[in-house]
């Protein structure tokens, strides 16, 4: 899966013209067909073929496009409007655009009337009405296109500004400086024989490195996610007193077969237990059991439930994790989470294939 947004190709002037012509042709034919059908349905057939049968919607469509060459007229008119928009409206002054558009509309209508008289012996009296119609449509089209182009450009500027601000914020937290500092602290702790401190620094560095690198991927090896979880659990365990009344139990099993998983997917369930399952004045326990065998993942996380707490359980992390599961593993997972007797229990079963 590509993390980059799909970029739509920019159409050339000629491609824009063809799209414009097709949409206008489709709209005019649909509008005419619906109007004709409504008139026939309401007042009965009013157009009759030479054999006495009523003219159908399809026959009317065929006549407009096969005999009267509506599609060719639309192609010519939209080409005129597109060229005026791109070459004049966007590049010249407004008076120039209006003048040339009016003259071009008048010439186009005059040619159209001449063709109509030559082929169908039609009248050439109606000149100003179609001329003003083509001229007005060209102006409206240019104004609408300009409005939407301005909105698009404004949005693009806002996105670019946001990206620049985000890049500036990221630059303030230089990863190289951060990891170099942690390495220095780690070396100092070893020299001072502060083993636990050195271990904590190393685990924190591993967590930060994973978050800044692997978390940017769509999927990561299971071994990497498992190592991240182990560092997180051990770092949390350093601040917890291990007694009979306060227990942290973990059991992580992995068969080492190649498998991929979405990064930072499991941490939400583990973090939830440490967030809601620890008390400074009451007994508590946290139990984490993770098994990954033959591409099948089974995770059980349990922590003591404290009834006196008004906020516990399904936090934002688990809610977001469920959304990611729906998106990435739809139909391939089963998740249950909620209170059971004296504990809060999360059980996730997932097919990694």
UniProtKB/TrEMBL annotation:
GO cellular component, one term: membrane
Coiled-coil residues: 145-172
InterPro entries hit by this protein: Bact_2-comp_sensor_kinase, Sig_transdc_His_kin_internal
Transmembrane segments: 66-85, 97-115, 127-148
Superkingdom as given in the UniProt entry: Bacteria
Domain spans labelled Signal transduction histidine kinase internal region: 164-241
PANTHER family: SENSOR HISTIDINE KINASE YPDA
Name used for this protein in its record: Signal transduction histidine kinase internal region domain-containing protein
Protein's organism: Spirosoma pollinicola
